[in-house]
Amino acid sequence: MLYRSEIDGLRALAVIPVIFFHAGLSFFNGGFVGVDIFYVISGYLISGIILKETEVGNFSLINFYQRRARRLLPSLFFVMGMTIPLAFIFLVPIDLKDYLTSLAAVSTFSSNIYFLLGMEGYFSESAELKPLLHTWSLAVEEQYYLLFPLFILLTWRFGLKIIISLLMGVFLISLSLSYWGASAFPTASFYLLPTRGWELLMGVFAALYLKSNPRPFSKSVQNFMGLVGLILIVFAIVNYNYSTPYPGLYALIPTIGTVLIILYVRTEGIVKKILSGKILVSIGLISYSAYLWHVPLFAFARNANFNMLPIEVASLLIILTFLLAYLTWKYIENPFRDKSKFSSRSIWSFSIVGSLFFIIFGLGSAYKIKDIELKMATDLSKSSQIINGNIDERLFIKYRIMLENHNPQMIVIGSSRMMQVSKDIAKVDILNLSVSDASLEDGIAITGLAMQKYQPETIVIGLDPWLLNKNSTRDRWRSLEDEYNNEIQKLQNEEKYSEQKIDFNNEIDKSSLESESGQSSSFMKIRNFTSPNDLPKTYKDMTRSDGSRIYNTIFQNKPEEEIKREFTAYIYHSINNYKLSNNLKSQLQSLVDHYSDSTNILLMLMPYHPELFKRFISEEPILLEIEKDFRNFAKKNNLRIIGSYNPNKTNCFAEEFYDGIHPEGSCINKIFHDESK
């Protein structure tokens, strides 16, 4: 395939917005579309080579994968190796364990699946702290290239018409899945090949078209179509943001723009001159190494600075990214591409040994960092606050119950919307056992664990609108599946159930704690702040000894404009095709029946941001019916219910919300102490 300098310029147009996006530059909120541009370019270049070699009869899978390894692995392994010492310096154990495990996932080109299963989403705050997050796109691409060459080899005998027809069918299925998944399963749709494959296929179609139509278009056509393509790409970069349902149909804008440039910008014209400029071509040549370096640099900087990345630091890291990219390109990428320096056998040996090293080192080291939730719970039992990390919150709560030996007057059960309920607000000794994205199953399991150890005067249960939704997809509760099943058996079959108290001492592997005694507190970076005035200017999420949450600096200072951009996602998150589950309602009834005789049960409705509530009333008015049903439930069971989804009824204002769904302590204080509500 003839070298096209404008393709390298197009690579620069892809990598620059991605880097600026991860640097947090607001003008590049849609910079993540650079990955889509890369996919189209890859589909065009690689499929073109495969088709040409297959046509002349010299295509070899072994040679193909050897070329892929030669192209990708040296720089990838080098950057991964450089991140290891930085990870041990800057990451707390929870995040270090996640990083070490991700080394193995990256080495097997499955990191897209790993990151999908292990976090909230690509645009979440926790994602910005993961040094190898960006490798998800490499995983998608390599998964595609495990399948595409095989497809060509198996179908080549049937001719191009059949191949194109089959590829078009796959394209339409993938695009349809992407469109549906962008709303129904946005995180999975973002990370997985079935919803991304159509983007690579657009590059394939471009290669097939140029194979049959090699003659370039006229200068005027190249100018016009090239400008249209460039405008489409720039439009997506400037106008998209993390609230854009993506990829879906929105991804057609930058990918069509890329295809137009590939097809029409070949010999002359304005866009050809722009993309073939020396600076853009130079950046394009080092774009792969730049892509590899930028996320680790930003992630470690954020980990070192409480998830903050000041513009001055971001600017320096952007410069450092391109400097390291150039050095990596010159001393790693280029030498390994030279067959006279590294033979095919050397590449295979390097690939196998390197992959095994990162798999064994990553998993082996991660295994040694175990019982993180237990260590955190132990640290919190001895401290006033601890810094949070990427943990299994359910297991952390389980260990908290095991280790907290004082008997609280109140326990709080609910989702992250309840995490601001603190001892200062409740005016009694509390233990807040809320977990993010809580389902009813969470509430039942955690209540059961707590009530086996404590005798609180009051149980506060947060009633989120999704709690009884039959179509809710929340399944994090499965970390406590045994506890949930045990509690359900007790609630629903009491006459057959012999209640057994958990021996909490036997549940804890004390040896794992004793072996690291004196180490874990400093290792977990505990901060014993005694008042808000003691907090540093920037800090991560923290959990207080009463279980309430201190949110991080960024979350506490979100601009109103950014808060409003999240509203659509929150509406979907709160009410997904709502349908009342009689089974879940029966379980809630059983929970109340079992504990209301011995303990006061207080039900709580947390308000939504005023502007978001207006959106709910307009788009999902069933929210009002859900609140009405909960109030009827409280009345039927003679239970007190406080709060409301309607912020006007709780006298909570827009400035009293961290985002669309999380009210600040001042709002919650009004709910607790205004008896008229």
Give a structural overview.
By secondary structure, the protein is mainly alpha-helical. The chain folds into two domains: 5-368, no CATH class; 372-673, SGNH hydrolase (Rossmann fold), CATH 3.40.50. It is 61% helix and 4% strand. The chain contains 32 helices and eight strands. The strands form two sheets. A five-stranded parallel β-sheet has the order 3-2-4-7-8, sandwiched between helices. The protein has a three-stranded antiparallel β-sheet with strand order 1-5-6, with helices on one face. Helix 4 (93-107) runs antiparallel to helix 5 (111-118), helix 9 (197-212) runs parallel beside helix 11 (252-264) and helix 20 (440-453) crosses helix 21. The N and C termini lie far apart (72 Å). The model is unreliable at 495-500 and 514-538 (pLDDT under 50).
Low-confidence runs: 495-500, 514-538
Structural class of the helix and strand makeup?
A: mainly alpha
Mean pLDDT: 88
Name the helicity range: 55-70%
Strand order of the largest sheet: 3-2-4-7-8
Termini Cα gap: 72 Å
Question: How many domains?
Answer: 2
The strand count comes to 8
For this entry, give a set of tags:
677 residues; mainly alpha; Rossmann fold; 5-stranded parallel β-sheet; 3-stranded antiparallel β-sheet; 32 helices
Care to give the gist of this entry?
61% of the residues lie in helices and 4% in strands. With 677 residues, it is mainly α.
Task: Please outline the helices and strands.
Layout: H1 5-22, H2 34-56, H3 61-90, H4 93-107, H5 111-118, H6 136-155, H7 160-184, H8 186-191, H9 197-212, H10 219-239, H11 252-264, H12 270-275, H13 278-285, H14 287-304, H15 311-337, H16 344-368, H17 372-381, E1 385-387, H18 393-403, E2 410-413, H19 423-426, E3 430-432, H20 440-453, E4 458-462, H21 481-492, H22 504-507, H23 510-514, H24 520-523, E5 542-544, E6 549-550, H25 553-556, H26 560-565, H27 567-574, H28 582-595, E7 600-605, H29 610-619, H30 622-636, E8 640-643, H31 647-650, H32 665-673
Parallel strand pairs: 2-3, 2-4, 4-7, 7-8
Antiparallel strand pairs: 1-5, 5-6
